[in-house]
Design a protein that fits this description.
about 675 residues, alpha+beta, Laminin, 13-stranded antiparallel sheet, 8 helices, about 30% strand
Length: about 675
């Protein structure tokens, strides 16, 4: 006879485990009538989980004021509902209880006994597998009270969980790791701090005399250290600190003879974004929170410089008790930070080679939920542009908010988050290059073209960039950039022609019919190396470009045509990759500066320019797919050495004469 047992199970994990074991018991009981029913789990206990509770291993709080117990893998729950027994011991006890004297157990076939054991072992193994992933227990709602019960990965450490007062423990994860066991890699762009977190950034440079700090933050609590640095670990001597005190922002600083404190007149807005600006010049400073007036103040004494030896700590401290007296707070910041800028440097909170973070613990990603409910189709990738905003980066051939529609292009249009990537100029631009472009901007800022040599924000590069409506042509040969800027801004939503050229250290720029402007690079290097790919309309990551390029925004507008060293770049045939590029709307519109054809507007560059230059510069064949020109025989027979610190005077003079005679793109 099979007995029916009714057990109230709340936890989905426990429910599934119990169903598997009860199913196994039911099969055995059906075949062997003498086997008694066994109760595998007790009903839920009243109350909540706590360190002195009855559960031997694990405790799960339910939603109706009750809790249940569970066991680590390799153990099963005893009949009392809270003790845990090893699998082998539990099997033996149950076997002894079931096989009573004078029972008719002998009627059970011997083959069934072996099936019973093997079947039960399979069930127990399946239970084990359900609660483990990658060799580690995976109890999503589990509560741990002993560090012996958990193993933190990637250098994480077991600490008491400060969010509770019942001695629970958790893993404290290093920078770049997340998850309960620190098992998940994490990229932090907009950090969220928990009150015991911090990020360490490089020591401040060139801030001893004056500094301007802008920080945008979203506090969740009205107390905590937001930012600090100084001379000593305990902040004795010189230091600065930005602290939340009962909701008001305090800027505390000491130049060595006594601290000054400036406090905001209004409190921060909790759970909303606040903007704080602080400016210090010597012993004087002012603070401005959101739209309130600037609050002035000064430190004591006559010293006006601050010595910074510590790293710059954001969101908290490795030892909050050590700085609490000077910072006037015993808590770290709780909330998110989306922007930190000091003396014009905007910090990147990532921990890899592209970011500024050098250390930290328990730092989460503030926008971790932004993309969780967003689906980008057709291979698109969701990227958080802020803690509240996302964008789908659509591959070529698709467009839309979710990359849901097909979109081909003949004239590429860029939306401020787009780019096209092509094979770079590599070694074919050592001494000379020429770029012609036809473009129509919709916004006054954005990069039109970039080609670099390294991914560490250093080294050789060329860039053509829109800055407040002006065109900036920059190139760096390794010893300092040349910065050549147009005389007048370009008109938005109109087509324009651009021509840049460079020979040795000298460069020239002309926009439409504006006067030609020129400039030269710094130092003694004369050759240019560009080993990376060439980008149009944007870059894949602004942190990968040279800091001397001053690129901060992607281009918004259309690029109709680009010719590099006399060779037309074929967009569709030569593109390597790209995102968020569609066909240019209203591409037949004519500007006031050019004539329209019946088909489309394409202002033509002077043929004399390329033909004349090709006759002046004949050379061996070059390997770049972007160019078919080459340098003169004199240059090829006597190549310029970057470390020779010699100018190629003849080449510069010859190019200068050529520019004056032939530089006319119309």
């Amino acid at each position: 006879m099979v007995s029916t047992i009714l057990i109230r199970i709340k936890s989905p994990i426990i429910m599934y485990i119990s169903l598997l074991i009860l199913l196994n018991c039911t099969i055995i009981s059906t075949l062997g009538e003498s086997i008694e029913p066994e109760i595998l789990f007790e009903a839920a206990f009243q109350g909540e989980c706590h360190s002195n509770g009855p559960c031997q291993h694990l405790c799960f709080d339910l939603h109706d004021g009750t809790f249940e117990c569970a066991c680590h893998p390799g153990y099963i729950l005893s009949d009392n509902g809270y003790s845990c027994l090893e699998n082998s011991i539990a099997q033996e006890k149950r076997h002894q209880r079931k096989m009573k004297p004078n029972s008719s157990s002998s009627s059970l076939p011997s083959s069934l006994s072996s099936k019973d054991l093997s079947g039960r072992n399979r069930v127990l193994q399946e239970v084990n597998d359900l609660t483990r992933f990658n060799g580690k227990p995976q109890y999503h709602d589990a509560i741990y009270y002993s560090c012996e019960s958990i193993e933190c990965e990637a250098g994480g450490s077991c600490v008491e969980n400060e969010d509770y007062h019942d001695h629970r423990v958790r893993c404290r994860c290093p920078l770049g790791r997340g998850g309960f066991f620190c098992e998940k890699p994490m990229e932090v762009r907009f950090p969220r701090f928990r009150g015991r977190s911090y990020l360490a950034l490089p020591t401040l440079r060139d801030a001893h005399k004056s500094m301007k700090v802008t920080i945008e933050f979203r506090p969740e609590y009205h107390e905590g250290v937001l930012l600090y640095s100084g001379e000593n670990q305990n902040l004795e001597g010189d230091y600065i600190a930005i602290v939340l005190n009962q909701g008001f922002v305090e800027f505390r600083f000491d130049c060595g003879m006594g601290e000054g404190v400036i406090a905001s007149e209004t409190p921060v807005i909790l759970n909303s974004w606040n903007r704080l600006t602080i400016y210090r010049d010597g012993w004087s400073a002012w603070l401005q929170l959101n739209q309130e007036r600037q609050i002035p103040g000064q430190s004591q004494g006559l010293f006006s410089r601050i010595t910074f030896k510590l790293e710059l700590f954001l969101g908290g401290s490795p030892n909050i008790s050590l700085i609490s007296a000077r910072a006037n707070s015993r808590l770290g910041f709780v909330g998110c930070v989306r922007k930190l800028e000091i003396n014009g440097h905007s910090y990147d909170f990532r921990s890899d080679s592209r970011g500024d973070a050098i250390d930290g613990v328990d730092t989460d990603e503030c926008n971790s939920d932004v993309c969780s409910n967003t689906s980008c189709l057709n291979g698109g990738q969701c990227v958080a542009t802020s803690p509240e905003r996302w964008i789908c980066m659509c591959p070529l051939g698709f467009a839309g908010n979710h990359c849901e529609r097909r979109s081909d292009f003949t004239i590429p249009s860029f939306n401020g988050s787009s780019y096209l990537q092509f094979t770079g100029l590599k070694e074919t631009c050592l001494s000379f290059f020429e770029i012609q472009m036809i473009f129509k901007p919709r916004m006054p800022n954005g990069v039109l073209l970039y080609n670099g040599n390294r991914l560490d924000a250093r080294g050789d590069f060329i860039s053509i960039n829109l800055v407040n409506g002006f065109i900036e042509f920059r190139f760096d040969l390794g010893s300092g950039p040349a910065i050549i800027k147009s005389r007048e801004p370009v008109e938005l939503n109109q087509w324009h022609s651009l021509l840049v050229t460079r020979t040795g250290q000298q460069g020239w720029l002309q926009i439409d019919n504006q006067p030609i402007v020129s400039g030269s690079s710094l130092g003694g290097y004369t050759q240019l190396s560009l080993s990376l790919n060439l980008f149009l309309g944007g870059v894949s990551d602004v942190k990968d470009v040279s800091s001397n390029s001053a690129i901060s925004d992607s281009f918004s507008g259309c690029i109709k045509k680009i010719t590099i060293n006399g060779r037309l770049l074929m967009f569709l045939d030569e593109v390597l990759s790209g995102v968020n590029v569609i066909d240019c709307p209203n591409r037949h519109h004519c500007s006031n500066h050019h004539r329209c054809s019946t088909s489309s507007f394409v202002p033509s560059f002077s043929s004399s320019s390329s033909s004349t230059r090709s006759t002046k510069l004949s050379s061996p064949s070059l390997s770049s797919p972007l160019t078919s020109i080459s340098s003169s025989s004199s240059l090829s027979s006597s190549p310029l050495n970057k470390r020779s610190f010699r100018k190629s005077t003849d080449s510069v003079i010859d190019s200068s004469r050529f520019i004056n005679n032939h530089f006319n793109p119309f």
